[in-house]
Amino acid sequence: MGRDLSKSLKKSLNKPNDVIYTPKELAINCVKSFEFQSNELVLDGFFGKGIFYDNYPSYVKKDFCEIEAPYNKDFFEYNDKVDYIISNPPFSMLTKVLEHTVRITQKGFGYILPAYALSHKRLKIIKENNFAVTGISYFYVTQWFGFPVIFIKVEKNKESIFLFEIKDYVEDE
């Protein structure tokens, strides 16, 4: 199983929207949106240049995944439980990323996503695993292809900041 996902992760490196580096100030603001306790384990699932990892507080335990050499640590093969994940995942694999994230994360996660990517299917994955979107920041990074992006803060067993129903409404006749 892990090998197939690893191959798809490596293929994503050929997609321009999947290898974009986060500006330091943005990473710092994303990390600051969470309140960590001493010794909690925080994972940077998509290390890149380490901009999130390097800005996690000094009082937490840190780990990372990065498929590029010399690290060769595939996020989809990471199965240890973590308290939080904060990162900028490959945009072409968001559903797979969320499915794996909710399996290994115990308290919450924060991801940068294209603004259009917070789909019904992805919100359903979040909700059905007892997580809720507790914060959204909307912004532009001009060198990122000209589309707006969001940072979603997601926490386990919390109330969502907006209504999300898994229900189809039918017009009255």
Question: What would you say this structure looks like, in words?
Answer:
This protein has 173 residues and is of the alpha/beta class. Helix content is 23%, strand content 24%. The chain contains 4 helices and 6 strands. It has helices spanning 2-12, 24-32, 94-104, 120-128; strands spanning 41-44, 61-64, 82-87, 105-114, 131-139, 149-156. Strands 2-1-3-4-6-5 form a 6-stranded mixed beta sheet, sandwiched between helices. Helix 3 packs parallel to helix 4.
In whole angstroms, the N-to-C terminal distance is 49 Å
- If you compute it from the alpha carbons, what radius of gyration comes out, rounded to the nearest whole angstrom? 16 Å
- Placed side by side, the strands forming the largest sheet appear as 2-1-3-4-6-5
Question: What average pLDDT do the residues reach?
Answer: 87
Strand content: 15-25%
Strand-helix topology:
Elements: H1 2-12, H2 24-32, E1 41-44, E2 61-64, E3 82-87, H3 94-104, E4 105-114, H4 120-128, E5 131-139, E6 149-156
Parallel strand pairs: 1-2, 1-3, 3-4
Antiparallel strand pairs: 4-6, 5-6
Helix pairs in contact: 3-4
What is the structure about, briefly put?
The protein is α/β, with parallel strands linked by helices and 173 residues long. Helices cover 23% and strands 24% of the residues.
